[in-house]
Amino acid sequence: ETIARRRVTACLDATDNDDVYVGRIRQDISQPNNKGLDLFVCGDQIKKGAALNAVQCAELLLK
């Protein structure tokens, strides 16, 4: 589910929640050919789990 907001996502939004929020996506100019991404990501690590979330994010990026 995509949630469009006019304010920046805060980490408090992810507290006690299974969802993971991405607040900002920026081009990472420090990477070769400026092909990197900087993401501000928040999630409740107790509810979601860091390793599972990393795998799911990578799977989405590879689609």
Topology overview:
Blueprint: E1 20-28, E2 36-43, H1 45-48, H2 50-62
How many domain regions?
1
How much is the radius of gyration in Å?
A: 13 Å
As an assembly, this protein is single chain
Regions with little confidence, pLDDT below 50 for 5+ residues: none
How much strand content do the residues show? 25-35%
* C-alpha geometry: globular
Determine the number of helices (DSSP H or I, runs of at least 4 residues).
Answer: 2
Number of strands: 2
Order of helices and strands: EEHH
Q: Summarize the biggest pleated sheet.
A: 2 strands, antiparallel
**Which structural class matches the secondary elements?**
alpha+beta
Mean pLDDT: 80
Ends: how far apart? 17 Å
Strand neighbour order, sheet with most strands: 1-2
Helical coverage, percent range: 25-40%
